[in-house]
Amino acid sequence: EVQLVQSGEEVKKPGESLRISCKGFGYSFKNYWITWVRQMPGKGLEWMARIDPSDSDINYSPSFQGHVTISVDRSISTAYLQWSSLKASDTAIYYCARHFPTVAGGLDVWGQGTTVTVSS
Amino acid sequence: QSVLTQPPSVSGAPGQRVTISCTGSSSNIGTGYDVHWYQHLPGAAPKLLIYDYNNRPSGVPDRFSGSKSGTSASLAITVLQAEDEADYYCQSYDSSLSGVLFGGGTKLTVL
Asked: In this complex, do B46 and A45 lie within 8 Å of one another by their Cβ atoms?
Protein backbone atom coordinates (compact mmCIF):
# COMPACT_ATOMS: atom_id res chain seq x y z
CA GLU A 1 0.00 0.00 0.00
CA VAL A 2 1.26 3.44 -0.95
CA GLN A 3 1.36 5.69 2.08
CA LEU A 4 3.11 8.61 3.69
CA VAL A 5 3.64 8.37 7.43
CA GLN A 6 4.43 11.53 9.35
CA SER A 7 6.11 12.02 12.69
CA GLY A 8 4.07 12.65 15.82
CA GLU A 9 2.59 15.69 17.47
CA GLU A 10 4.99 18.35 18.74
CA VAL A 11 4.65 20.96 21.47
CA LYS A 12 7.39 23.59 21.43
CA LYS A 13 8.22 27.01 22.81
CA PRO A 14 8.77 30.14 20.70
CA GLY A 15 12.34 30.36 19.49
CA GLU A 16 12.92 26.60 19.55
CA SER A 17 13.88 24.61 16.50
CA LEU A 18 11.94 21.69 15.08
CA ARG A 19 12.16 19.11 12.34
CA ILE A 20 9.20 16.93 11.35
CA SER A 21 9.35 14.02 8.96
CA CYS A 22 7.37 12.24 6.27
CA LYS A 23 8.33 8.70 5.23
CA GLY A 24 7.12 7.11 2.04
CA PHE A 25 6.13 3.46 1.73
CA GLY A 26 5.04 1.29 -1.15
CA TYR A 27 6.38 3.26 -4.10
CA SER A 28 9.59 4.53 -5.63
CA PHE A 29 10.22 7.60 -3.50
CA LYS A 30 12.41 9.35 -6.07
CA ASN A 31 9.73 9.27 -8.76
CA TYR A 32 7.32 11.72 -7.11
CA TRP A 33 7.79 15.12 -5.55
CA ILE A 34 6.84 15.77 -1.93
CA THR A 35 4.79 18.85 -1.11
CA TRP A 36 4.22 20.34 2.33
CA VAL A 37 0.89 21.96 3.20
CA ARG A 38 -0.09 24.00 6.27
CA GLN A 39 -3.50 24.27 7.85
CA MET A 40 -3.73 26.83 10.61
CA PRO A 41 -6.54 26.46 13.17
CA GLY A 42 -9.87 27.13 11.51
CA LYS A 43 -8.25 28.05 8.20
CA GLY A 44 -7.77 26.53 4.77
CA LEU A 45 -4.94 24.66 3.11
CA GLU A 46 -1.79 26.60 2.18
CA TRP A 47 0.96 25.28 -0.05
CA MET A 48 4.38 25.77 1.55
CA ALA A 49 6.98 24.13 -0.67
CA ARG A 50 7.81 21.09 -2.73
CA ILE A 51 10.93 19.02 -3.25
CA ASP A 52 12.00 16.61 -5.96
CA PRO A 53 13.65 13.68 -4.17
CA SER A 54 15.55 12.67 -7.31
CA ASP A 55 17.73 15.80 -7.31
CA SER A 56 16.57 17.82 -4.25
CA ASP A 57 15.29 20.62 -6.47
CA ILE A 58 13.12 22.83 -4.24
CA ASN A 59 10.42 25.42 -4.81
CA TYR A 60 9.15 27.51 -1.89
CA SER A 61 6.01 29.60 -1.65
CA PRO A 62 7.02 33.25 -1.22
CA SER A 63 4.96 33.20 1.98
CA PHE A 64 7.26 30.59 3.55
CA GLN A 65 10.61 31.26 1.88
CA GLY A 66 13.22 31.97 4.52
CA HIS A 67 11.15 30.74 7.43
CA VAL A 68 11.17 27.00 6.79
CA THR A 69 13.56 24.57 5.16
CA ILE A 70 12.62 21.36 3.41
CA SER A 71 14.95 18.51 2.61
CA VAL A 72 14.96 14.85 1.76
CA ASP A 73 16.99 11.76 2.57
CA ARG A 74 16.40 9.51 -0.41
CA SER A 75 18.22 6.60 1.24
CA ILE A 76 15.43 6.27 3.78
CA SER A 77 12.58 7.63 1.64
CA THR A 78 12.00 10.48 4.06
CA ALA A 79 11.25 14.15 3.59
CA TYR A 80 11.69 16.80 6.26
CA LEU A 81 10.25 20.18 7.16
CA GLN A 82 12.21 22.23 9.65
CA TRP A 83 12.20 25.51 11.49
CA SER A 84 15.20 27.14 13.16
CA SER A 85 13.14 29.48 15.33
CA LEU A 86 9.47 28.78 15.86
CA LYS A 87 6.81 31.42 16.38
CA ALA A 88 3.40 31.10 17.96
CA SER A 89 1.95 31.69 14.49
CA ASP A 90 3.52 28.39 13.35
CA THR A 91 0.88 26.55 15.35
CA ALA A 92 -0.87 24.42 12.74
CA ILE A 93 -1.33 20.99 11.24
CA TYR A 94 1.32 20.21 8.64
CA TYR A 95 0.66 17.67 5.90
CA CYS A 96 3.04 16.13 3.44
CA ALA A 97 1.65 14.87 0.17
CA ARG A 98 2.92 12.95 -2.83
CA HIS A 99 2.98 15.38 -5.74
CA PHE A 100 2.69 14.11 -9.31
CA PRO A 101 5.95 15.39 -10.79
CA THR A 102 4.75 18.35 -12.83
CA VAL A 103 4.33 21.91 -11.56
CA ALA A 104 0.55 21.59 -11.81
CA GLY A 105 0.41 17.99 -10.69
CA GLY A 106 -2.11 16.68 -8.19
CA LEU A 107 -1.45 15.48 -4.65
CA ASP A 108 -2.64 11.90 -4.66
CA VAL A 109 -1.39 10.50 -1.36
CA TRP A 110 -1.34 12.45 1.90
CA GLY A 111 0.31 11.90 5.24
CA GLN A 112 -1.87 11.83 8.33
CA GLY A 113 -0.69 15.27 9.40
CA THR A 114 1.58 16.49 12.17
CA THR A 115 0.13 18.89 14.72
CA VAL A 116 2.61 21.51 15.87
CA THR A 117 1.75 23.69 18.85
CA VAL A 118 4.02 26.60 19.70
CA SER A 119 3.26 28.21 23.03
CA SER A 120 5.17 29.76 25.87
CA GLN B 1 -5.34 35.69 0.10
CA SER B 2 -5.96 32.92 -2.42
CA VAL B 3 -6.03 33.81 -6.10
CA LEU B 4 -8.31 30.83 -6.64
CA THR B 5 -11.67 32.01 -5.36
CA GLN B 6 -14.24 29.59 -3.97
CA PRO B 7 -17.54 30.32 -2.26
CA PRO B 8 -17.11 29.98 1.51
CA SER B 9 -20.10 27.71 1.82
CA VAL B 10 -22.72 25.78 -0.13
CA SER B 11 -25.54 23.58 1.05
CA GLY B 12 -28.05 21.10 -0.26
CA ALA B 13 -30.51 18.49 0.86
CA PRO B 14 -29.83 14.76 0.56
CA GLY B 15 -30.34 13.61 -3.01
CA GLN B 16 -29.82 17.06 -4.49
CA ARG B 17 -27.03 18.34 -6.70
CA VAL B 18 -24.57 21.07 -5.73
CA THR B 19 -21.72 22.76 -7.54
CA ILE B 20 -18.64 24.47 -6.17
CA SER B 21 -16.86 27.01 -8.31
CA CYS B 22 -13.16 27.84 -8.41
CA THR B 23 -12.44 31.12 -10.16
CA GLY B 24 -8.91 31.81 -11.28
CA SER B 25 -7.17 34.02 -13.79
CA SER B 26 -5.00 34.05 -16.88
CA SER B 27 -1.93 33.07 -14.89
CA ASN B 28 -3.38 29.82 -13.57
CA ILE B 29 -6.55 28.11 -14.80
CA GLY B 30 -6.72 30.37 -17.84
CA THR B 31 -3.27 29.26 -18.96
CA GLY B 32 -4.44 25.67 -18.99
CA TYR B 33 -2.80 24.41 -15.82
CA ASP B 34 -4.60 21.40 -14.45
CA VAL B 35 -7.10 21.78 -11.61
CA HIS B 36 -7.54 19.23 -8.87
CA TRP B 37 -10.15 18.93 -6.14
CA TYR B 38 -9.82 17.64 -2.59
CA GLN B 39 -12.29 16.58 0.05
CA HIS B 40 -11.25 17.33 3.63
CA LEU B 41 -13.24 15.68 6.38
CA PRO B 42 -12.78 16.86 9.96
CA GLY B 43 -9.90 15.10 11.67
CA ALA B 44 -8.69 13.41 8.51
CA ALA B 45 -6.11 14.14 5.84
CA PRO B 46 -7.34 15.73 2.62
CA LYS B 47 -8.28 13.27 -0.10
CA LEU B 48 -7.82 13.71 -3.84
CA LEU B 49 -11.28 13.71 -5.36
CA ILE B 50 -10.77 14.90 -8.94
CA TYR B 51 -7.50 15.32 -10.82
CA ASP B 52 -6.71 17.02 -14.11
CA TYR B 53 -10.09 18.78 -14.17
CA ASN B 54 -12.38 15.79 -14.57
CA ASN B 55 -10.71 12.50 -13.69
CA ARG B 56 -11.62 10.44 -10.64
CA PRO B 57 -9.07 8.36 -8.74
CA SER B 58 -10.03 4.77 -8.16
CA GLY B 59 -12.67 4.49 -5.46
CA VAL B 60 -14.21 7.94 -5.88
CA PRO B 61 -17.91 7.63 -6.74
CA ASP B 62 -19.11 8.94 -10.09
CA ARG B 63 -21.40 11.31 -8.17
CA PHE B 64 -18.36 13.60 -8.16
CA SER B 65 -17.34 15.29 -11.41
CA GLY B 66 -15.24 18.24 -12.51
CA SER B 67 -15.32 20.69 -15.38
CA LYS B 68 -13.59 23.79 -16.69
CA SER B 69 -14.66 26.89 -18.56
CA GLY B 70 -12.26 29.71 -19.33
CA THR B 71 -10.58 30.83 -16.14
CA SER B 72 -12.86 28.81 -13.85
CA ALA B 73 -13.36 25.23 -12.80
CA SER B 74 -16.25 23.56 -11.04
CA LEU B 75 -16.90 20.52 -8.89
CA ALA B 76 -20.33 18.96 -9.08
CA ILE B 77 -21.72 16.55 -6.54
CA THR B 78 -24.94 14.75 -7.40
CA VAL B 79 -27.23 12.69 -5.17
CA LEU B 80 -25.91 14.41 -2.07
CA GLN B 81 -25.31 12.19 0.94
CA ALA B 82 -24.73 13.05 4.57
CA GLU B 83 -21.15 11.77 4.37
CA ASP B 84 -20.36 14.37 1.69
CA GLU B 85 -20.40 17.06 4.36
CA ALA B 86 -16.81 18.33 4.33
CA ASP B 87 -14.55 21.11 3.16
CA TYR B 88 -13.64 21.09 -0.53
CA TYR B 89 -10.57 22.73 -2.07
CA CYS B 90 -9.47 23.33 -5.62
CA GLN B 91 -5.76 23.39 -6.47
CA SER B 92 -3.75 24.52 -9.48
CA TYR B 93 -0.49 26.22 -10.39
CA ASP B 94 0.14 29.92 -10.89
CA SER B 95 2.86 31.10 -13.25
CA SER B 96 3.05 34.57 -11.69
CA LEU B 97 3.65 33.14 -8.23
CA SER B 98 5.66 30.22 -9.59
CA GLY B 99 3.93 27.96 -7.15
CA VAL B 100 1.03 25.75 -6.25
CA LEU B 101 -2.23 27.39 -5.26
CA PHE B 102 -5.16 26.22 -3.21
CA GLY B 103 -8.53 27.85 -3.28
CA GLY B 104 -9.82 29.21 0.00
CA GLY B 105 -12.04 26.19 0.54
CA THR B 106 -15.79 25.65 0.52
CA LYS B 107 -17.72 24.13 3.39
CA LEU B 108 -20.48 21.85 2.15
CA THR B 109 -23.40 21.40 4.50
CA VAL B 110 -25.90 18.61 3.85
CA LEU B 111 -29.19 19.85 5.25
From this structure: yes
